[in-house]
Sequence to fold (226 residues):
Amino acid sequence: MFTVGLLIFDRFDRQSGLVPTDRLRNSWATVIGVGSIGRQVALQLTALGVPKLQLIDPDEVTRTNITSQGYLTDDIGRPKVQATGDACHQIEHLLAIEEIHDRFRRSLETGPNVFCCVDSISARAAIWRALETRCAFWADGRMLGETIRVLAAHAGQGREHYRTTLFAQGEAQAGSCTSRSTIYAASLAAALMVHQFVRHLRGAPLDPDATFNFTAGEYVVLPVGV
Fold:
């Protein structure tokens, strides 16, 4: 909040009534994988007002990451968690960030809200097994080309269904999750994940399984139970 003359400006004014400020300020999030989707999730959560982020990723920025993931030319060769952390701090200087330049490990203490943005089904399954009972909210973003799938779960909804989506890696469509991707698809996937997080903060029902297909112009939310 800052003052110009007699006017008081709060950067959260325009989302007032849409995002529960008190619940947001008392929570924090872990983003596992800060590639195409995860970097966008981290930036959006920072702008939203999450007070603390934990970023986990073992990779460094390469030239192809500029186009599909939104990294800067000057970021090439840097750890992705470091480059993403710096970008988040440019949005909010007071943000607390823990940067873990390593793969996810079961022993890590993670936040109550987890955003899983990794490339393979096997990695998702391993992370879910480690965190299923430890997180209050879970979102998983999957993308191949111009097709996005976002899965969300919390204590009362989505957990049973999510387990059914962790099929064997050999049954997955050829190519890693983000082997073919664009920045606009990644940004939308991140937005859908953050939207489910805000619904969780509101205490509203989630959309446990939603798919957006740019090519077909379709947005489908599956009716699932718990």
Notes: The CA atoms of residues 70 and 95 lie 20 Å apart. The chain is about 30% helix and 20% strand.
